[in-house]
Amino acid sequence: MLLVAGMLRYGRSLCSLGAGAALRRPAGRGGLRSGGHARGVSTSWSPVGAAFNVKPQGRLWHLLEERRGLFGVPELSTPEGFHVAQKEALRKTEWLVERACSMPPGPQTVTIFDELSDCLCRVADLADFVKIGHPEPAFREAAEEACRSIGTMVEKLNTNVELYQSLQKLLDDKKLMDSLDAETRRVAELFMFDFEISGIHLDEEERKRAVDLNVKILDLSSAFLMGTNFPNKIQKHLLPEHIRHHFARDGSYAVVDGLHAEASDDLVREAAYKIFLYPNAGQLKCLEELLSSRDLLANLVGYSTFSHRALQGTIAQTPETVMQFLEKLSDKLSERTAKDFEMMRGMKMKLNPQNSELMPWDPPYYSGVIRAERYNIEPSLYCPFFSLGACMEGLNILFNKLLGITLYAEQPAKGEVWCEDVRKLAVVHESEGLLGYIYCDFFQRANKPHQDCHFTIRGGRLKEDGSYQLPVVVLMLNLPYSSKDSPTLLTPGMMENLFHEMGHAMHSMLGRTRYQHVTGTRCPTDFAEVPSILMEYFSNDYRVVSQFAKHYQTGQPLPKAMVSRLCESKKVCAAAEMQLQVFYAALDQIYHGQHPLRKSTTDILMETQEQFYGLPYVPDTAWQLRFSHLVGYGAKYYSYLMSRAVASMVWKECFLQDPFNRAAGERYRREMLAHGGGKEPMLMVQGMLQKCPSIDDFVDALVSDLNLDFETFFMDSK
C-alpha cells in the first residue's frame, strides 16, 4: 500500500513514546463537507477550558435532528456506509487513473496523482482509525473490510504499468521538471519512489516477486506485532509462593503479560523479565523471516540494505550517518551512564544488601525510588493543579500567543462522534479563520487501545476550485473520567503526553501544503516527532505552566519550586535511559543492515547490549522478540533521538529566552510546520536554526539537556 499518502513510508498514526511508537473547509457544524471560505466566528463555538471540565450534556433537539454520520460523512451513519464510501472511492479511482494515463505530462499529472491518493486516503485513513477506535464491533468490522478493499486497490495501482509510465514521462522531461515549483517536483519524486519500492520498474518476473515479498512482509509484520504482546505461562509451583499473587492465573499456570518494571519486589521483576522474555521459537522464526524478506525486497529494488531504502529522504539520509550519530552519542553518555548505574546500584544495596548486582530489570524501579527520595514528586501533589480543562486552556493560551490561534469547543452533530465523551475542537486563526478540526477522544473505555495516538482522518490540500480542504485529525488518550467531586485530573506525565500529542495535531492543522500526500505529519519519521517533542519543552517551562496550573478548588497557582523539582527529577538517571534508547536504535540498525546477519538475532542482541548499554545480557532471554517498534519503525527507531535533538536545538535557539515570542512562533510555522513533508527535512531545520547542524551539534544538544539546573538546588535550599 505505497500510493496511499505514503502510508507505509511514514505510517498513518504517531504514538507517543511518551513516556515510549502513527497522526478545512468551513462547513457549519459538520466535519467533512466541502466548499466555502474560512469563517471568522461561529455561534456554536465555546471556550475550550470549560468544555473539558464538565461532562458532555445531551441536547434535547438531538432527538429530532437528522443523524449525520461519523466525522460528518453522511454515508457513515451506519456501518454499512463504509461499503458505500469505498465503492464510491473505487469508482472515482478508476476515473482518475484513466485521466492520468490519457493526459500529457505536466503539473496536472502530479495534481491527479494527489487527488487519486486523497480519494483512497479519505476512506482508508478514516477506516484505519475506526477499526481500532470505535466501541461498536459492527463499525470496527466494516472499517476493517474497507481497509482490505482499499488495500487491494492500492496493490493493483502499484502494479499498473501504464499509470507508472504516465508519471515516468514527467520525470524524464528535464525541461518540464525544471519548470515545476519545488513542492510539486518533490511530490512527483515521492510518488515515483513509492512506485519503485514496490518494484514496478522491474521486468515482469521480478515485479511479481516484489509484489509477493510485499504481501509476505505485511503478513509477517502483523504476526510479529501480535506475538510481541502474547503472554508467557509458567507452572505456578515453579514460582516462589510469596510472589505468585502478582501474576494472573490460568488454572495451574501463572500468566506473565509484561515486565512488571515498577514492582518493588526484586524477585517479581526478575521472574517477570525471565519469563516474559523467554524465547518463543515461532516468534523467533517470524522475526528472522521478516528481516530477511525486507532485505530481499530492498536488494530487488536496488538498495544494498533495507536500512538504505528506509532512510532515503530523512534527516539522517544514510545508515552510516545514523550509526555515527549513535556511536558519538554513546561515547558522550558513557561516563554519565556509569554514574547513573552506580547510583542505582547504591540504592539497590541500601534496600536489598543480599543481592546488590544491578540487572536489566532494575533501572526503571530504582531510578524511580531515587527520584522520589530526592525530589518529593508524588504525582498526587501535582494532580489538583492539572485539571484537564486547565491544561487545555494552557494549550489555548500558548497557541494564541505564539501563533495567533484559538481552540474552540464545537458541539458535534448527531452521529458525528463515536462516543458521547469525544470533544470536537475548531482550530481558528485570528486572520485566516478556520484551519481544521481536532476530535479529542481522551477518556478510558473498554477495548480502547492503551496508547496515546494521533490519527490523520483527512489531509489538507488545495482543491481545483481554489478552496482549501481542511485537515481533520483525532487525538486519542487514556485519561480517567471526572468524578462527582472533581474534574479529570492529570498526573505530570499525562499533562506532558497531552502537550506531545497536541504538537502532532498542530503540525497537521498548520501544514498548508498544496498536496495531501505530504500534508502535516506525512513527512520523514525523524522529522515527524520534532513538533510533538518540542511541545514537551513548553510543558516543562514554568513560564508556560504558570499560565494555567491552578488548583481546581482554591485557584492557588502551582508553586515554582514544585515545577522546578519536577523538571530536575526527570534528569535523574536520564543518561542511563538515553543510553538504553541508543542500544535499541543500534540494534534496529544492525538487524536491518547487511544480510545474511553474521550471527543469530539473540547473539547480536547480546553483543549490542554489551557495546551500547552496559548491563549484562540475561541468558535464555530474547528481548528483540518483544521489540514491537521493529514493525512500524524498522531501521528508523533512531528517529526519537534525532527528533529530540532537533527539538532541543529549536527550543534553545528560538524559545528558551521567551516561550511566547510571537516572531519565533511565526518563523516556526513558516519554516517547519507549514511544509509537512513537501520540503527536504534538513532544509526545514536549517531554515529554523539559520544554520546546518552537524552530528556533533545533535549529540551536544541531547547531552546538554541532561545537565542539572543549579537554580533548582538554590531555590530548594532557601
Automatic annotation (TrEMBL):
Its EC number is 3.4.24.59. Its main location: mitochondrion. Cleaves proteins, imported into the mitochondrion, to their mature size. This is Mitochondrial intermediate peptidase. The lineage of its organism: Eukaryota, Metazoa, Chordata, Craniata, Vertebrata. It is an enzyme of class 3 (hydrolase). One of its GO terms (biological process) is protein processing involved in protein targeting to mitochondrion. It is found in: Mitochondrion matrix. Pfam families: Peptidase_M3. GO terms for molecular function: metal ion binding; metalloendopeptidase activity. Its cofactor is Zn(2+). InterPro entries: M3A_MIP, MetalloPept_cat_dom_sf, Neurolysin/TOP_dom2, Pept_M3A_M3B, Pept_M3A_M3B_dom. Keywords: Acetylation, Calcium, Cobalt, Hydrolase, Iron, Magnesium, Manganese, Metal-binding, Metalloprotease, Mitochondrion, Protease, Transit peptide, Zinc. It catalyses: Release of an N-terminal octapeptide as second stage of processing of some proteins imported into the mitochondrion. Residues 260-702 form the Peptidase M3A/M3B catalytic domain. GO terms for cellular component: mitochondrial matrix. Belongs to the peptidase M3 family. Binds 1 zinc ion. It comes from the Eukaryota. Monomer.
